[in-house]
Every structure is written in C-alpha cells, then in structure tokens.
Amino acid sequence: MEIQATRKPPKVQTSIFIWLKDNLFSTWYNSIFTLFGLYILYLVLPPIFQWAILDAVWTGEDRLVCEWYDENKRKERAGACWLYIKVWLNFFTYGFYPDELQWRVNLTLLILVVSVALFFIPNFKKKHYVGIFLFVAYPIIAFFLLHGNEQLGLENVKTHKWGGAFLTVLLGLIGIIFALPLGIVLALGRRSKLPVVKALSIMFIEFWRGIPLITVLFFAAVMFPLFVPQGVEIDNLLRCIVGLTIFGGAYMAEVVRGGLQALPKGQYEAAQSIGLGYWRMMSLVIMPQALRIVIPGIVNTFIGLFKDTTLVSIISLMDLLLTVFTSMSNPDWMGFPFEGYIFAATGFFIFCFALSRYSLSVEKKLMVSHHK
Q1: How far is CA 289 from CA 86, 128, 153, 205, 365, in A?
Q2: From residue 36, how far is each of 25, 28, 29, 33, 156 by CA, in Å?
C-alpha cells in the first residue's frame, strides 16, 4: 500500500476585504442593507459628534457659558453642556450623603472592588476565602461603614440621605446576591415531591411574578407599615431591598427550574446509584450542571433587576435617575435634560455591559457557549 505524503492545511484568508465580502456584501440584499445602514450612520453620527464633542462646553462656572442670546434676543444653546455634569457629579454619585463622610462610601466600594478583582486572578488559590468574606464579613463591614456606629466613632447617616449612583449600585448588588439563592430554593421547592412544599413554592412564585415591581415597592413602603405592631419601625431602604429580592427571586426560580428540567434523568439516577442523598446530589451533581446551562438566563435576570432599581424613586429613595431629575428642578440649571439622562444611561450601560461580558467569559471557561 502506497503511503501518501502529508499535506499542509489550507491557509485561512483573513484579510479585511474577505471579511467585508463574507459578512457585509455576501448577497445583493445584504449589500443593500449594508449601504442603507452606512447612509443612516452618515446622517446620524456627524451631528451627534458635533453636538457632543466639537461644540460641547466642558469648563466654566455657571450655565451662562453654555448658552447665549442671538441678535433677535432669542436664547441659543451651544453643544452639550458637560459642565452641568461636572457641577452635579457629587450629587449624582452620593446623593445627600454628607461630604465629609463620603470617604466611607469610597472605602466600602474599594474593598468590594479589590475582593471581586481577586476572582479574576487565574492562579489565586484562596478564592473560597474571598467568597466567604464577601457573603459573611463584607455585609457587616459595609453596614457599619455606610450607616455608622457611635461606639466605633462613626457618625450615623440615616438611609434617607443615601442616594445617587452609590444607592443604585447598592440596591442592584444586594438584589443580585440574594435573588439567586432564593431562586434556587424556590426552584427546588417547586420540583419537590412533598405536596405542601411544592404547592407553597408554586403559590409564592406565581404571586410575585403576577404583580408589577412598582406595586411591590409601593406595598413595602406604604402598606407594610400598617401591618406591623405600633412602635415597630422598619427602615424604608430595608423594606425596599426585601421587595427587590423577593421579586427577583421569583423570576430567578423559573430560570433555575429550566436548567433543572434540561438535565437528563440519568444524571439523577447516576448520583443516586453512588449513594448520594438528596442535598448532596443537588449540591454536587445536579445544581452545578443546571446553573451552567442557564448562565445567560441568570445574567439576563440580573440585568433586568438592576435596571428595575430605578423604580425605587416612587418611594422617595434618591437613586441615580431621581438625582438627575432633581437637579433639573434647580432654577440655576434648568434646561439640560439630555446631558443628565445621557449620563445616567451611560452609567447603567457600563454596569450592564460589564456584567454581560463577564457572563460570556464564564460561559467560555465552562465551555457552554455556542460553537461556531
């Protein structure tokens, strides 16, 4: 038998022209859509760039540098007045939190950033200790830093002074952290063989999924105090956090249940065949696989929950969006809605986009992303 000589694999052509042909001009209708899209960008992008960058006002002392009167005494605007963001940046970040105590907010955020950054170090072998710190010790440290404690020499700051991006991130992170374990418990309860547990889980999930979040927050802020004994006061922020967590947990339960149902029955039988009990089977075999399958759904729920934190403004919590709206009512800075809302939208986009990209990296690491 004649042995054929091995041949080199064909060269993969990756020039920009080949990419354009394969992705943008592969067919006649793709070419039309590409040219139409380029025309739309030509119409939209130059005016936006002119307004946001070239004609924008970045420095100054008051709003007068952002506008003038023409020869007919009509008020005219220059480009974007980013000076408005500069003047109100502290308020957008901290709300009414006292200026001299804002270092406590910064320190709380710094501890969180450093702790989370340790998870991104590939060869760091103490990640489980970091996880224990974040879920056990960090909430206690953050509470005393943010709220204060006179015995520790930290001045108390009432929660009604908390606000801005700081409060939005706080609500979003707490809701995300506690919604996932609550959703796991509810999903297991809904699939339980115990009739009472299954019925209660179904009722809980369907009830909270069947009402809008704005109703949940309104009930937590206005109606709930009517049902507690006289003299008992529960902080408004705490009631809001509980409402967000319950609401997010109900939606998360259905996402987790989808992952549990996607696993073949053989996985359960294999775990039982080696003598694992229910809880060990779920924690060591079933749940890790189920959560890996539904990573996109989990992250999507997280993103939705974070954006829903803007609804807390109806119960007088000064989140980022409400601080922007409040600044517009100042008579010295009225008339700059675009800049304020663009700033808020950019903040939400950065957080949500970072969360989305991180989920993609986790999917790739766990080899659950789609194959091209």
Answers
A1: 47, 19, 47, 23, 14
A2: 12, 12, 10, 5, 59
Q: How far apart are CA 26 and CA 275, in angstroms?
A: 57
8 Å CB contact between 277 and 204: no
**pLDDT exceeds 80 at position 138:** yes
One-letter amino acid at 244 equals: L
**In the numeric block, which tokens belong to residue 205?**
């999930």
Q: Which residues contact 218 (CB under 8 A, 6 or more apart)?
A: 314, 315
How confident is residue 20, by pLDDT bands cut at 50, 70 and 90?
confident
Predicted TM-score of the model (pTM): 0.81
User: If DSSP states are collapsed to H, E and C, what string results for the chain?
Assistant: CCCCCCCCCCCCCCCHHHHHHHHCCCCHHHHHHHHHHHHHHHHHHHHHHHHHHHCCECCCCCHHHHEEECCCCCEEECCCECHHHHHHHHHHHHECCCHHHHHHHHHHHHHHHHHHHHCCCCCCCCHHHHHHHHHHHHHHHHHHHHHCEHHHCECCCCHHHEEHHHHHHHHHHHHHHHHHHHHHHHHHHHCCCCHHHHHHHHHHHHHHHCCCHHHHHHHHHHHHHHHCCCCCCCCHHHHHHHHHHHHHHHHHHHHHHHHHHHCCHHHHHHHHHCCCCHHHHHHHHHHHHHHHHCHHHHHHHHHHHHHHHHHHHHHCCEEHHHHHHHHHCCCCCCCCHHHHHHHHHHHHHHHHHHHHHHHHHHHHHHCCCCCC
Lowest mean pLDDT, pick from 56-65, 143-152, 163-172, 191-200 = 56-65
C-alpha span between 248 and 298 (Å, rounded): 10
CB 359 within 8 A of CB 294: no
- What average pLDDT does the segment 257-282 reach? 86
Which residue type, as a one-letter code, is found at position 242? V
